[in-house]
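Recap for those who missed Tuesday's class. We walked through two folding examples back to back. For each one, the amino acid string is listed first and its predicted structure tokens come directly after. Nothing is annotated here on purpose, so try labeling regions yourself before you check the end of the notes.
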Amino acid sequence: MKELTSFEGVKCANCATPLEGEYCHHCGQSVHSVLRPVHGLLEEFLETVLHIDGRILHTLPPLFLKPGFLTLEYFSGRRVRYIAPFRLMFVLCLLSFFTMHLAADVISSRAGQRHQQDLISGAASNFDEDHNADVVRKDLARKLASLEALRESNARPGGNPAIAAQVERSEQQYRADAAQRLHDLGVPAATASAAKAAPAPASSADDDYSDKPSDWTVKPVSIHWLPAFANERLTVLDQHMIDNMHELFHGTEAQRTQARERLITNVFSELPETMLVMMPCFALLLTLFYLFKRRLYMEHLIVSLHSHAFIFLSLMLITLAGMLSTWLRPHAAWTGWALGLCQGALMLWLPVYLFLMQKRVYRQGGLMTFVKFWLIGWCYFWLLTFVLSLAAMLGLAH
């Protein structure tokens, strides 16, 4: 009664309804003003964060350890103490793709460093697979351009001057090996000597290529039932895809590195959006396979959201374990073995969890659940392949 009498005679500022509490029972507006001191906003922020943290502690452990528990709790109406399914899935999706993006960047960076080391040491000077003189010349021009770019990058402030001497030795080795390959192919000695003495091309030029990106011009897209601006946009995306593929497979080392980094960034930026398509599609699969259970589509959608939330959480933990193993293995070999074991356990728990979740939520026998689980997984695999391929194409088209 104390709370009710404290608002006696007070009316809602929005609809003038007499208040009986902190919120208007007619329009829902709070009695508290948004115009408040900064310390009031800070208190509200801390309260919100602590409330979310409390829900995280109630949500993540059962999500990971109790298959189907959160879904059955939602079906039973007990929802306040848990994070909403869509918010939970979306946050874990962003975190998992962010983690995998970091891991992909680390792998790409190490691959680039290994290639750079092979380039400097001369380990990449093999021309034996070049089947004619033109291919040998293009291969030599590409490697010399990569060496020139490496020389320029280390000539800047902060570079390593000792690499210049290594680059010089590698350049002479490449020229000698190319000249020897030309001799083996029966090219006249004068031409082989010219290849050995030819100056290194500028790193920004790719003049020895007959297939420059500008020459890989696509034909304008013309789909009669699409408007002109859509055809123009598709043509631009197609050209971007061709240019990126050219740089990725036929460019200099600097161009390949930039194209690889660009592709990784673009694909991971597209994945969260494309993965959102999987939620309703997976719910539709569940609806079709459990048609006689007479459940609403929204129930299947909640199952889909919780399933994907668990998948994203597992992928994030697997990726983190792999990154931690790579970082700790040089310092303590046993940590790599232990974390590898954790990764294996997480990978095994992933299908087992999803099977147990499907069995507990839909309450069918083990054999029937296994058959439906296998069929749904087969359909989902091809759907996921299509979505990931679409994300890769979108990444190339930027």
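Example two. Treat it independently of the first, because the proteins are unrelated.
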Amino acid sequence: MTRKFAKVTGNLPGEKAKQLLERRVQAVPQGVANGVPTFAEKAEGALIHDVDGNTFIDFVGAIGVMNVGHCHPKVTEALHQQVDQYIHPGFNVMMYEPYIELAEKLAAIAPGDHEKETIFFNSGAEAVENAIKIARKYTKRSGVVSFTRGYHGRTLLTMTMTSKVKPYKYEFGPFAPEVYKAPYPYQYRRPDSVTEEQYEDLIIQQLHDFFVNDAAPESIAAVVMEPVQGEGGFIVPSKRFVQEVYRICQEHGIVFIADEIQAGFARTGRYFGMEHFDVVPDLITVSKSMAAGLPISGVIGRKEIMSVSSPGELGGTYSGSPLACAAGLAVLDIIEEEKLNERAEVLGKQVMDRLRQFAEKYEAIGDVRGLGSMCAMELVKDRQTKEPNKELTSFIIEEANKRGLLLMSAGAYGNVLRLLMPIVITDEQAQEGLDILEESLEAAVSRQSVQV
């Protein structure tokens, strides 16, 4: 296949990457996972160039961080301007305008016409932790509810809230107390004898039973929900389910927290994924694509909830750094000026149409699903049994890397390919990436057949 963008010469890693890998092995613990075995030298838009002269089309986007693309000119310009002014006076010491301006803009675009306030932190896990602190302070309760297959971070509390045991929780206990996991729908894996509507009825009944058998609602401070489960396998719930969770929260005075860390900032075709479900969260956690690669996260929420904490109870040394705030302001401008919400819808349709074509051709694809440009396909050994095919998923990623495409898996069984290409990717780049994906799928299926 003739390629215009992706280019890999020789085996991976190349010579320069091998030298860096040797240093990495000596200096960095193996607990830090890596994808493709090479090192970046330059990146722009949806392309990454490595130290050996190879070029990759990026369908991972630093795990959903690069919605506006690598090194967008507006972002780099904003960073250069900010560096020349000041780098970090520390908001707790001397305040600065970019923090205030970004807080105002996020509150303005967040769902709901109520008064809102915004606070910044450094990582997605910090945002979730602090949202729970705020909810506990407001409700004077301590219980926290997350959902089966959910992912919220790697700190003690967020690791406890996360479902996947390996690699996130194994031998890292004991875990935080008073954290409960509620059922979450997974239509693809419903019993064959049950219709979609019957399955939804069943899950909603299980949800009601959960608040009888597992967690008394009057003891729960917060329910934390991803509008689309990210690490869990890009599982999209129904509007009915999300609205029922929200209704239960309203009925019992529970703070409803939308974890928008992976789904936010135009990924699903809206600023926030929860907008698809006609629900107005009490608190929203944000990070990842918020600042195009600069470390920042935040909590946006109802003023009456956000304002209960006293001075000094929230914050951190680097929280809401001027550089990250400047990048965040640039990101919001880019989303608006380049109409990335609309672009995400168009891109998602293109990707899903192609994935459905793959599914017609390859029996190994059990399901394709997504919302906006948050798309995925699930690999199975047998469409009847739906037995997960983690090995094939790994083969596809490896074959894609060889051909100049970056991919990443997800799901409890590691058998879901998730696609998070920058939304600014060109149609030509996206099609070439999808062509490589199909070629890699064909090679991986053949490879697994030979091994069997």
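Answers for example two:
The chain has a mean pLDDT of 97.
The two ends are 28 Å apart (CA to CA).
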